[in-house]
């Protein structure tokens, strides 16, 4: 799914977290000078030109820093966002390429921040008063759901389903029928919809729509902050399966060829293909409109599909392109 190599599973299974609240853990890991309208790189960009918004228009966006699009993401979550194996301080992936293309259309310099705390992202964008927010937006494989939309607006840009990873020649009996998951050990990442779904299958109350089919024989949930560590549980035999977005399953299946295999796609409507969204504040409409317009432009001019094709994700375009 990704033509570029990632670090080994062991190397990448480090302390990059994806759960809990800890906004202060965010750190700037890359500054991509990819602004449009005459930008030449080297740490500066032009914000004037015939195709660029006026200064008054940009002022209405209430940016964290004028002239910059400051985003927050959580890596590793390959191939969407993860550290570049050639330069681990830089975050790459199809989400980052889409963010760069949006920034270029808005004539802004893209600043990527990586947080160790996935669950902190929405509060860090929506919590502070407008003008005091830490980030302008987030693009980090957020599945759109009502719970998140109560706090932020989400601009759909991608779609992904869910699937399992299994050991080769698995004898666990896990199939696409979630009732076969009962009593099994399944690894999942903190802060994800997948974790909430498994909790609800066990009788939880996260509002995912899952039926508590395993309440009497619950799934043994192994949850970790880092997706690499999640998959490691399958590799080392500590878990019967891992549960994650399908693009991520495909990536790790290739990365760990012979150690894990793609498992079934659950025959469950709650695990069906669903849109993912760019996270923005609810009270910054001019900025949200500008992001939507930039996304529409890169879709129309072919940049969007070129990015997805480069990462082997063209089937995940949203809305599907004809």
Could you characterize the architecture of this molecule?
The protein is of the alpha/beta class and 322 residues long. It folds into two domains: 195 residues, D-Maltodextrin-Binding Protein, domain 2 (3-Layer(aba) Sandwich), CATH 3.40.190; 110 residues, Periplasmic binding protein-like II (D-Maltodextrin-Binding Protein, domain 2, 3-Layer(aba) Sandwich). It contains ten helices and 13 strands. Strand 9, helix 6 and strand 10 form a beta-alpha-beta unit. Helix 3 crosses helix 9 and helix 3 packs antiparallel against helix 10.
Order of helices and strands: HEHEEEHEHEHEEEHEHEHEEHH
Q: CATH first level of the largest domain: which class?
A: Alpha Beta
Q: How many domains is the backbone divided into?
A: 2
Question: Could you say which structural class the secondary elements and strand pairing correspond to?
Answer: alpha/beta
Would you tell me which CATH topology of the largest domain applies? D-Maltodextrin-Binding Protein, domain 2
> What is the strand content?
15-25%
The dominant shape is: globular
Task: Please bin the fraction of helical residues.
Answer: 25-40%
Radius of gyration: 20 Å
Q: Quick check: average pLDDT?
A: 84
The CATH homologous superfamily name of the largest domain equals Periplasmic binding protein-like II
Strand order of the largest sheet: 1-5-2-6-13-7
Largest beta-sheet characterization = 6 strands, mixed
DSSP summary: helix tally = 10
Distance between the termini: 21 Å
CATH architecture label name of the largest domain = 3-Layer(aba) Sandwich
Total number of strands: 13
Uncertain segments are 1-49
């Amino acid at each position: 799914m990704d033509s570029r190599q990632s670090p080994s599973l062991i190397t990448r299974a480090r302390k990059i977290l994806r759960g809990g609240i800890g906004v202060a853990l965010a750190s700037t890991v890359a500054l991509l000078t990819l602004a449009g309208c005459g930008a030449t790189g080297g740490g500066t960009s032009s914000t004037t030109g015939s195709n660029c918004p006026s200064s008054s228009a940009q002022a209405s966006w209430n940016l964290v820093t004028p002239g910059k699009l400051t985003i927050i993401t959580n890596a590793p979550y390959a191939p969407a966002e993860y550290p570049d194996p050639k330069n681990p301080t830089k975050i790459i992936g199809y989400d980052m390429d889409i963010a760069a293309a949006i920034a270029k259309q808005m004539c802004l310099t893209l600043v990527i921040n990586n947080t160790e705390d996935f669950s902190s992202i929405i509060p860090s964008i929506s919590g502070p008063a407008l003008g005091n927010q830490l980030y302008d937006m987030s693009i980090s494989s957020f599945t759109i759901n009502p719970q998140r939309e109560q706090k932020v607006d989400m601009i759909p840009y991608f779609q992904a389903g869910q699937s399992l990873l299994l050991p080769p020649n698995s004898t666990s009996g896990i199939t696409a029928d979630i009732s076969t998951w009962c009593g099994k050990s399944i690894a999942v990442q903190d802060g994800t919809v997948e974790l909430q779904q498994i909790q609800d299958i066990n009788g939880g109350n996260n509002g995912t729509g899952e039926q508590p089919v395993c309440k009497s024989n619950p799934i043994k949930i192994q949850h970790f902050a880092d997706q690499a560590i999640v998959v490691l549980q399958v590799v080392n035999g500590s878990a019967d399966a891992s549960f994650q977005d399908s693009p991520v399953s495909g990536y790790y299946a290739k990365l760990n060829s012979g150690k894990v295999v793609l498992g079934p796609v659950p025959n469950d409507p709650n695990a069906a293909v669903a849109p993912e969204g760019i996270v923005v504040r609810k009270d910054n409409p001019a900025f949200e409109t500008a992001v939507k317009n930039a996304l529409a432009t890169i879709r129309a001019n072919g940049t969007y599909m070129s990015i997805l094709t480069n990462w082997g994700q063209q089937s995940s375009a949203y809305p599907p392109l004809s």
